[in-house]
Amino acid sequence: MTISLDTNVLVGSRETVATFIMNQVNPAKGEFHRNNPDIMI
């Protein structure tokens, strides 16, 4: 049985994972640090 996921659910999940990685996994002044967190990459 296959369950289709709504695009909004997938986008929300991706945003949640990306936010977690940026806030909890990458060091604050590491390789991927950016000065303005409001700018979307």
The N- and C-terminal alpha carbons lie at a distance of 36 Å
Poorly predicted runs: none
Overall pLDDT metric: 76
How many strands, which pairing sense, and closed or not: the largest β-sheet? Answer: none
- Which descriptor suits the 3D outline? elongated
Helices and strands, in N-to-C order?
Answer: H
Beta content: under 5%
Number of strands: 0
Radius of gyration: 14 Å
| Secondary structure category | mainly alpha
Which features does this protein show?
1 helix, single chain, 41 residues, mainly alpha
Textual characterization of the structure:
- By secondary structure, the protein is an all-alpha fold.
- The protein contains one helix and no strands.
- It has one helix spanning 7-25.
Write the layout of secondary structure elements.
Blueprint: H1 7-25
Quick gist of this model?
With 41 residues, this protein is mainly α. The chain contains one helix and no strands.
